[in-house]
Amino acid sequence: METIQVRDRSFAPFLSAEEIQTRVAELGAKISAELQGKRPLFLAVLSGSFIFAADLLRAISIPCEIAFIRVSSYEGTGSTGQVKQLMGLKEDIAGRTVVVVEDIIDSGLTMKELLGILVEKNPAEVKIASLLVKPGNMQVELDIPYRCFDIPNDFIVGYGLDYDGEGRNLPAIYKVTE
Ligand code: IMP
Ligand code: MG
């Protein structure tokens, strides 16, 4: 893999498509084993998690459902810390095992706010699944039992993650070079 250009920044290879597929398959197997018999409802957080969710769900071997929600707070390469409303949840989650599917947990503020909204709807339990976690940026306490990679604080792009709207289509993950 080579260095690539997305808008005005260059990005270097970080995680290959093969590495990602391997970890996503392992995570799918782990979730399937642990949530057997619970018929989990996966809530994929749009837009960033759409590719991860598509791959993860195909690695889930137990009966389950998926729905797509939206909660947006991010512009360019810096978090605004301004979390907007949860949109798109039509399913009744009361009494259900819910797995929130995220592309990346950075400060954790988005997820914390989302969990608060979901818990008010009385689910049996809410688990977090995130492709990537930046432990060095975390500003809140979060239990993230399902994660593929813990990564440094660098800004990254690809496999669903964007830089100002571009780069989501890249099959691998790249990190900014400067
Ligand atoms: P948090 O609220 O700081 O945890 O930010 C979470 C959201 O910010 C993610 O769902 C992404 O949409 C976005 N984000 C955080 N870090 C990156 C990154 O390195 N590249 C692209 N998007 C990111
Ligand atoms: Mg996101």
Structural class: alpha/beta
Helix content: 10-25%
Main sheet: which strands, in order across? 4-3-7-8-9
Q: Helical element count?
A: 3
Overall shape: globular
How much of the sequence lies in strands comes to 25-35%
Parts with pLDDT < 50 across at least 5 consecutive residues: none
Please tell me how large the radius of gyration is: 16 Å
* Beta-strand segment tally: 11
Q: CA-to-CA gap between the ends?
A: 18 Å
Order of helices and strands: EEHEHEEEEHEEEE
Bound molecules: inosinic acid, magnesium ion
Q: Largest sheet, if any?
A: 5 strands, parallel
Observed structural traits:
alpha/beta; binds inosinic acid; globular; 3 helices; 31% strand; binds magnesium ion; 178 residues; five-stranded parallel β-sheet
Structure write-up:
The longest helix has 18 residues, at 17-34. The chain is α/β, with parallel strands linked by helices and 178 residues long. 21% of the residues lie in helices and 31% in strands. Helix 1 crosses helix 2 (50-58). The protein starts with a strand and ends with a strand. The model has no long low-confidence stretch (mean pLDDT 94). A hairpin with a 2-residue loop joins strand 5 and strand 6. The chain contains 3 helices and 11 strands. The chain is globular, with a radius of gyration of 16 Å. The strands form 3 sheets. The chain has a 5-stranded parallel beta sheet with strand order 4-3-7-8-9, sandwiched between helices. The structure holds inosinic acid and magnesium ion (MG).
